[in-house]
Specification:
The chain is elongated. It starts with a helix and ends in a 21-residue tail after the last helix. The protein is about 50% helix and about 20% strand. The strands form 2 sheets. The chain has a 5-stranded antiparallel sheet. Strands 6-8-7 form a 3-stranded antiparallel sheet, with helices on one face. It is of the alpha+beta class and about 280 residues long. It contains 9 helices and 8 strands.
Length: about 280
């Protein structure tokens, strides 16, 4: 008690006199804190229930509920302090200046924080999606408030800042149910184009993973420098994309030669002239 008296610069009698004279304000301030925190808890629970009914992502639900609760608690504490007769103008000004300084110091972190909120709210991708963003490709493993974590096909872990992700281009390969497999196969000049197109269509029709609608396409795409290039397009479920892609290339390699077709490679003819 002596330490408190020394710190406040008043005697024991003066301290008790101050407490008694402000007993009503203290009681009201305590009531504001008690009732305010109770209401804050109820509001936070109501926000959580509302977000769950709307099937909002669990991470976003927890974040918004915590943010609402924290904001309301700060308001309650400020109201209780004001009830005690403490001048709040200077206090709020100091709090605002401190908040501004902290905001400037952590501008990058706040940008990532805002980016995380945008990602969780608009859901351009979800856990398990295969994406390309910020020049990196991989499966989304976690979506956190500040970072998004990818796992590459060779099992590398990539951590991306949400601020850059939210403001950059995002390519989601698994958002849509179906994907189109685009392939190009070259045959030599002089080979039978009809035979090549017929074989490619045969490979497509024999693969149950390839969808009939939209219809597949096989056509002459380009007369290249060393080959006649045939464009092949087929629609598949996104989970079958790479399986179809690799199997088609393997069948072309194994069966084109037996059908009298050759797979050319870049060539250069060099003519040597002898001087007389």
């Amino acid at each position: 008690m002596n330490k408190i008296e020394s710190w406040l610069g008043m005697g024991k009698g003066e301290l008790w006199s101050l407490i008694v004279s402000n007993a009503a304000n203290l009681a009201i301030a305590a009531a504001i804190l008690f009732v305010g925190f109770w209401i804050t808890k109820r509001v936070s629970k109501s926000v959580t229930k509302m977000l769950h009914k709307k099937k909002t992502d669990d991470s976003l639900t927890s974040f918004i509920s915590s943010l609402v609760g924290m904001g309301l608690k700060i308001m309650v504490v400020i109201a209780a302090i004001g009830q005690l007769g403490i001048e709040m103008t200077s206090f709020i000004a100091i709090l605002g200046a401190a908040g501004f300084a902290i905001g400037m110091a952590f501008s990058g972190t706040l940008s990532n924080f805002a980016g995380g909120v945008m990602i969780l709210f608009f859901k351009p991708f979800k856990i398990g999606d295969y994406v390309n963003m910020q020049g990196e490709e991989g499966v989304v493993k976690e979506v956190l408030i500040f970072n998004t974590i990818l796992s590459t096909l060779d099992n590398k872990i990539i951590i991306l800042a949400n601020g850059a992700v939210a403001n950059g281009t995002i390519v989601n390969y698994t958002k849509a149910e179906n994907r189109r497999v685009d392939m190009t196969f070259g045959i030599a000049y002089g080979d039978d184009l009809k035979v090549a197109k017929g074989l490619l269509m045969k490979f497509i029709n024999e693969d149950d993973r390839i969808l009939k609608d939209p219809a597949p396409f096989v056509g002459l795409g380009e007369l290249g420098d060393s080959s006649v290039n045939i464009t092949t397009r087929a629609w598949v479920n996104h989970t079958d994309y790479w399986g179809v892609y690799f199997d088609m290339h393997e069948r072309v390699y194994n069966e084109f030669e037996a059908a009298g077709l050759s797979i050319p490679f870049p060539q250069m003819d060099v003519h040597v002239q002898k001087e007389a």
